[in-house]
Specification:
Layout: H1 13-21, H2 30-47, E1 53-57, H3 63-71, E2 76-81, H4 84-90, E3 93-94, E4 106-112, H5 120-133, E5 134-141, H6 145-151, H7 166-173, E6 177-181, E7 184-187
Parallel strand pairs: 1-2, 1-4, 2-3, 4-5
Antiparallel strand pairs: 5-7, 6-7
Helix pairs in contact: 2-3
Amino acid sequence: MARRVVAPTRFDAAYYARFYGDRRTRVADAASTRRLGEFVCAYLRFLGLPVREVVDLGCGLGHWRAVIAAQFPRARYTGVEVSDYLCRRYGWQKGSAVDYRHPRPADLVICQGVLQYLDARQARAAIDNLARLTRGALYLEVLTRTDWEENCDRSVTDGAVHLRTGAFYRRLLRRHFHACGGGLFVRRDAGVVLFELEHAG
């Protein structure tokens, strides 16, 4: 099932005011991103993955930048956005998860709430591109059909997206990554040993 998708040009000031600014309608804020980021960064330290280079695709207002600065103060953070409005306001690099290129592979790639806005062909290309960009680990969050039907708060979640099954994403991700749970995926060639029950599936 696919829903009408918001065009990239619609990621304007009004979109971010609704989903990230207004306390009554925002889907996430800096505090929730900080809690999530503390978990992700602690898991990376547990796995022994060094984090010196971070690429955040669809970085939005840049909440992850503060997390990385606190958790890995020596890491270089690059925020990437398709939104012209955010690039002008925050100075992010203009780019898409589908085809963004970075000068070197990143130890951590973040892609939160992006892939559901892409059609199936673009989503497949984006996952291949995320694998090219990632040297160590990927944090990925995508709204799925089950999430829309059972898990999310629809009053604050953008439903004008492509709702696909989790199996669609897992099938594409497992070619490049081991799933560790919590939205964290480690590249298969990263040299990380995961015990059997540490795999999420």
